[in-house]
Amino acid sequence: MISPFKKFRVDTLFFRSFAVVIVIVVACIAWASYIISSNELVKTSSLYQQRLLDELNNEIATRLTMIEQISLSTSRDNEIISFLKDRRDQYDTYRRSVNVVNALANLTYSIPLIQGIDLYMEHPFQREEDNYIQFRDLNKLNQEAWTGAFVNNDFAWSTEHDIKSFQGEVPVLSFGRKIVYDDKYLGVLVIHIKYKEIVKILAGHTSNANRLMVDSQGRELVRAGQVLDHTELSEWINVKDEESGYVRIRGNAKIGDSLLVYSKLQDSNWTLVEISSWKQITEGSYTLAMVIGFIGLAAILSVLLLTHYLSSQFTKPIKQLVTAMRSDFVDSNKTELPRDYENEFGYLFAGYRKQNERIEELYRSLERRYEQQRKAEIEALQANINPHFLYNMLDQLNWMAIEAGQDELSRILELMGRMFRIGLSNGNSFITIAEELEHIACYLEIQQLRWGEGLEFEIQAPPELSDLFIPKLTLQPFVENSIVHGFNARSRGFIRIRFEDKTDSLQITIEDDGAGLSKAADRKQPRRTGGYGMRNVRERIAGYFEDRYGVKLAEREGGGARVVIDLPLLTEPPQSAGKDK
């Protein structure tokens, strides 16, 4: 065998050798790019579809769960149970039926997803067939085509079916729940939701998505698009046990392979499935391989050098900007950007520098303003009078009352003196719970001297909390509000103060049995929920602890008002708390 190096010309040998090598390299690159990119495309598409299905599944599950919860609360409604249970008086039954219709109609109007509601019962009232609220005969429930899944369950979802309405036949999904009271089967509440709304959610923002939703039994509930007719889904996924994932379905010459992506959220009864053509997903990989082959044969060397040079020139300023964006913070070392660019990069650098300067200036301004405002608020919210003068005057008045034989007035002045002593607290903004309880006990005793036996109170404070610190004069404004406004025009009242350790916070609850927060029907003036004292407490807590802690006011069950104050567990006063001015 003659060696080719001895037979062929050197230039031809080198040309053909390099040509064969380049063709083989380009072919290998094209084939590898096709395999890798097709796998990545399938993986990326499946992950994207799975995330999208998870979002759609979460949205649909949220709405369907809302319907289930509405059905549960409605089936336990006393008005409906009374209407179904006791129907001896015809007039009373009719009146209750009107109330039930109004209640169900309010649900239909307030929740756009609901198309209508049927109440299956014995001896129902006849209503117009296309009305949103229908009373139907319980004995005819089994005649409905969708009640198959409802036989052995207390509640179930139906597949898609049509009902009559003002717009004609409307496709819906229905959720039925049995109404049982004292182990007695009273009827069935069926809520119809708009099928097209669920289809719209399932389709998302794409018009060519092929998706369907199945329940835990494998029944198809909703379908969007043209789902390819493969074999049963149970051959590919287990809708009861499996969570989200994807699988490749092998097809035939007519259908071809498909990518099946499914989504099932944790503790969810629904599975969303999307089926896409495998050929359409990987078509871009084939095109990419062909393009790489053609381009690689013509410009593999020159393009490599040119691309490397141009890319380095374009990516260099971008990398500099990204580095500056990562390192530039207020009070941190700044990364200096080049100033010799006169093109778009120069405009970008200049704009970024100007933006940084404005942000830093704004941050400094806000920081100064916040610090000034915080100091001003805390200082302004302290006592606005000189309590030392008042304390001395009360002491003098107390001695005068003793000399005049006014024992009750003397006791009030003594209690007020103790209150002012605690209010002074050596100029400290925070006092112990024991001191705060002594202060409020003095105030309540003064009020009892005025009310007599009509005012009762109870203070529950575990001894282990006595040494904790809270902002001083926290309780008095709310107790005063209960007495002045809650017990207005009344001769009796009860107040309870409770301290609780909630592990990560101290919770103080103040309750009264007064008029409450809402405007009562027999009173001309509503009870106040504010005032300087209460606003003072709110703003002091906000000034010391920002938004993590605060005050909540609510109606008390059984009448009256409840105030819940959340504070941190402080074994010593915070360093930010200064002396009273």
UniProtKB/TrEMBL annotation:
The chain crosses the membrane at residues 12-36, 286-310. Residues 475-569 form the Histidine kinase/HSP90-like ATPase domain. The keyword Transcription does not apply. It comes from the Bacteria. Residues 349-376 form a coiled coil. Residues 376-453 form the Signal transduction histidine kinase internal region domain. Keywords: Coiled coil, Kinase, Membrane, Transferase, Transmembrane, Transmembrane helix. One of its GO terms (cellular component) is membrane. GO terms for molecular function: phosphorelay sensor kinase activity. Pfam families: HATPase_c, His_kinase. PROSITE patterns: PROKAR_LIPOPROTEIN. This is Histidine kinase. It comes from Paenibacillus antibioticophila.
